[in-house]
Design brief:
The protein contains seven helices and 15 strands. By secondary structure, the chain is α/β, with parallel strands linked by helices. It has two domains: 2-137, Response regulator (Rossmann fold, 3-Layer(aba) Sandwich), CATH 3.40.50; 143-243, LytTr DNA-binding domain (OB fold (Dihydrolipoamide Acetyltransferase, E2P)). A hairpin with a 5-residue loop joins strand 13 (211-216) and strand 14. The longest helix has 14 residues, at 102-115.
């Protein structure tokens, strides 16, 4: 079976590739770190199985499955187990939790083999339910306590244009003010809603509600232009795929 790995985390993809190499029934057809590349890959090549991470910035794994679930069999791969029961009840091929073990992957592959002669499962009902569970199952960060001079200020995440790493602190930037928190970018990535805050650089998270557009500088690098702020934010090469639809 031709297998495609879709996960925005490089280390997770490497781990999955090692597992796939140990399953004789699988041939690795490629790997993608974003939804758009996955869509292009499946559109151009024959893919039997997509090992699909749910939690990805921008277009999530649920968005990928919605677009590609009729073209290939899908096995969801995620760190969040609250979706699992619904997935099995509504007929998804399989659902495996991170960190994925070789025996668990082998079981998922066996289930896919049983379905190869049939059309991929209809995931429409499952995807609707997973989207609801995903929204309800996570308690995302709603505000931060930030230092403004000698004052501690409570700032709701809706007010924040972007976060930027600044030495030992993280800069919190709103439309008309800047303040500091001690929480690092890595922790914020885990605690903020990924549909609201996109990581565009290893040191920067931007609130998509404040993105006015993107431009290229004289070197051809992407820069995010903001609403209500004059500065632009650089986008590192690893995150340019987020803006391919814009």
């Amino acid at each position: 079976m031709n297998c495609l790995i879709v996960d925005d985390n490089k280390m997770a993809r490497m781990a999955m590739k090692q597992l796939v190499s140990q399953v004789s029934e699988l041939t690795l057809a490629g790997e993608c770190d974003n939804a758009m590349d996955a869509y292009n890959k499946v559109s151009k090549e024959h893919i039997d199985l997509i090992l699909l991470d749910i939690e990805m910035p921008g277009m999530t794994g649920l968005d990928v499955a919605k677009q590609l679930g009729t073209r290939a069999h899908v096995v969801f791969v995620t760190a969040f187990d609250q979706h699992a029961v619904t997935a099995f009840e509504q007929g998804a091929v399989d659902y495996v939790l991170k960190p994925v073990s070789l025996p668990r992957l082998a079981t998922a592959v066996s289930r896919v083999k049983e379905r190869l002669g049939r059309a991929p499962a209809d995931l429409s009902g499952l995807l609707r339910e997973l989207a609801v569970q995903r929204a309800e199952g996570r308690n995302y960060l709603r505000w931060v306590n930030a230092s403004v001079g000698q004052t501690i200020k409570l700032i709701t995440v809706e007010e924040i244009c972007y976060f930027k790493a600044d030495s030992k602190y993280t800069l919190v930037v709103t439309a008309n003010a800047e303040s500091l928190i001690k929480k690092p970018i890595k922790e914020l990535c885990d605690e903020l809603d990924p549909t609201q805050f996109w990581q565009i650089h290893r040191s920067t998270l931007v609130n998509v509600s404040y993105v006015a557009g993107v431009t290229r500088d004289y070197r051809g690098h992407l820069q995010v232009k903001l609403k209500q702020r004059n500065e632009s934010l650089p986008v590192s090469e690893s995150y340019t795929h987020l803006f391919r639809q814009m």
